[in-house]
Amino acid sequence: MKFTMFDQQMWGNLSFEKIGYDKNNRVFIIYLLNGQQLEFSGMDERTVFQFIIAQDKEIFIQNFLLPNYKYIQREAEVS
Prior knowledge:
The chain is built from 3 helices and 5 strands. By secondary structure, it is α+β, with helices and mostly antiparallel strands. A 5-stranded antiparallel sheet has the order 1-2-3-4-5, with no helix packed on it. The radius of gyration is 12 Å and the shape is globular. 15% of the residues are buried.
C-alpha cells in the first residue's frame, strides 16, 4: 500500500494527516488523528485523485465518500 501525508496546516485538515491506497485491491484508507481508520472498499484510482486534489478534503469525505462507498471504521492496527 502506498501512503501520502498531508500537512494539516497547509490543507486545513482537522481529522487526518495520512491516507493509503492499494490499487490492486481498490482499498482506500484514511488514518484519522483519533487513532481510527476509515477503510473504503471498491475505490477506483480516479476517485482517490479527486480526493487528493479536492480543496476541502473533509467535506469531500462527508459529502462524497461516506454516502457513496462501503467502508469500515476501525481502531488503528498496532504494528
